[in-house]
Amino acid sequence: MTRYKATIAYDGTDFAGFQSQTNQRTVQKEIEKILMKLNSFEPVILQGSGRTDSGVHAFGQVIHFDLKGKVRDLERLRFGLDTQTPADIAVKKVELVPDDWHARYQKHEKTYEYYLENSITRSPFQRHSKAYFRYPLNFERMQEAMSKLVGEHDFTGFTASGSSVDDKVRTIYQAEIIHLDEENFKFIFRGNGFLYKQVRNMVGTVIKIGNDRMPVSQIDKILTSKNRDFAGPTAAPEGLYLKEVKYAENTDI
């Protein structure tokens, strides 16, 4: 068996998330169908760097999988996967990795981006690619709130119920908001890991602060109390993108 690492992109609109689920269309299932064909119709179980929820997109999700037989030509393998998977999945790169390399457990950092349209009327052309908020937002207040998320914190207060992770301490290296133009914002979060719906819960809280319905100090209250009830609503999934996964072997992590 030979282990391969692949970098993929996908439009999450018509998927029930990344991970396989019974009777649901998922990114993992679609790719595994093609891998099975390439593996003489023997099942292949791939592993991802993490899950993304229903409706969430990815520019740079990372997976690994094992195929039997001699080492494949990497570009032919990439091309075969890319052309046989559905149009809402793209296989951007395939690499060889050691047999013990693991997309989830190798030390890494992730970058997420969140795109928000802030206008009186929503563009019908962006309804699947950007979240929407119609009410006024104070950019300076949102910037101040985002800065409070940087550093090592217990993010229990920003975690959705259903998380099976006990240790909720994570480090955020970058939390930035960019005013792209009069009607569009981009949020950037880079860290050593993120909890279940953490990014969307942080965005939902910052939006509420930007709309003057919470004080900037609410961020401190959520982090200190570890109480989800003090945070804002979970932001819509269509604005969220897994931008990049960087592993320790080729970064300064």
From TrEMBL:
Keywords: Isomerase, tRNA processing. Formation of pseudouridine at positions 38, 39 and 40 in the anticodon stem and loop of transfer RNAs. The gene is truA. It holds the Pfam family PseudoU_synth_1. Homodimer. It is an enzyme of class 5 (isomerase). This is tRNA pseudouridine synthase A. Residues 6-106, 145-247 form the Pseudouridine synthase I TruA alpha/beta domain. Its EC number is 5.4.99.12. It comes from the Bacteria. The active site is at 53 (nucleophile). It catalyses: uridine(38/39/40) in tRNA = pseudouridine(38/39/40) in tRNA.
